[in-house]
Amino acid sequence: MCGRYLIASPPEVLRALFGYPDQPNFPPRYNVAPTQPVPIVRMAEGVRRFALVRWGLLPSWVKDPAAFTLLINGRGETVNEKPAFRNAMKRRRCLFPADGFYEWKNVGGRKRAYVARPAVNGPVAFAGLWETWTGPNGEEMETAAIVTTQANAEMAAIHHRAPVIVPPQDFDTWMDCGRFGVRAASELLRPAPDGTMDVYEVAPAVNKVANDSPDLLEPFTAPPGPVTAAPAKPAHDDRQGSLF
Fold first, then answer.
1. Cα(16)–Cα(38) distance, integer angstroms
2. Are the C-beta atoms of 143 and 56 separated by less than 8 Å?
3. Distance separating alpha carbons of residues 97 and 175, to the nearest angstrom
4. Triad 176, 91, 59: Cα angle to 5°
5. Buried-exposed string 84-123: b where 16+ CB fall within 10 A, e elsewhere
6. pLDDT 10s digits, 115-134
7. Contact at 8 Å (CB) between 47 and 56?
């Protein structure tokens, strides 16, 4: 799964890569966590647009958000069948701008944190799905989930899953649901090519959401000692904190 990721590229770099006309201005984030507002790129009337949504998809048919499981990831192998993702695959596909993601591995009883970053510096696009949920009083909340697939060679030693990375030439195929159907989009749900990611251990500081600085990306070798707990699975939380 993908439970934490980072967005470190400057706004102008992201705008150039994704080709949206919006001009959001924001600082880098090195420890993005579930339930936080996150940027996505999606199509609106044939134009790529930047938007802010909550990370943790909430299908439109959910009656009580508090009783619904937080969906931060969707498995690429089943998104076309699962009720929570099926309609979004047909009509609401998006991209998550990112500069890498974190994963944890159990090594000798110790949960150790790793980061996976593009081998060539620069941002990438995670495949995503978004939904709009409308509450009983007319309140609306836009949410999204990252689509995952089997890990490539570099990532497989750490975890068996990883986000689907959509190359720039396929951005329209994934986002433009009017021109490209589920079959064409599903062909993109594959592991990143081997050799395209750098994966290395980072310090346990990433376990705490409050820690958000470039220091989290420094290579780290865990010393002998007590077990370090990985981040707990987030409790369901509809509250949205500050994005930047």
1. 19
2. yes
3. 13
4. 140
5. bbbebbeebbbbbbbbbbbbbeeeeebbbbbbbbbeeeeb
6. 999 999 899 999 999 999 99
7. no
Up-side HSE of residue 36: CA atoms within 13 Å toward CB? Answer: 17
Distance between CA atoms of residues 160 and 156, nearest Å: 5
- For residue 163, the surrounding DSSP H or E stretch is strand 161-163
Q: Which two tokens stand for residue 104?
A: 């944890």
Residue reference for tokens 């009337």: 45
CB 204 within 8 A of CB 113: yes
Helix, strand, coil percentages, rounded to 5, for the chain: 20, 35, 45
Distance CA 123, CA 130 (A): 20
Q: Classify domain 4-103+122-198 by CATH architecture.
A: Alpha-Beta Complex (3.90)
2 backbone dihedrals φ, ψ, rounded to 5°: -125, 110
- In whole angstroms, give the CA distance from residue 126 to residue 147: 7
Half-sphere exposure in the Cβ direction for 101 (13 Å, CA): 26
39-87 pLDDT, tens per residue? 999 999 999 999 999 999 999 999 999 899 999 999 999 999 999 999 9
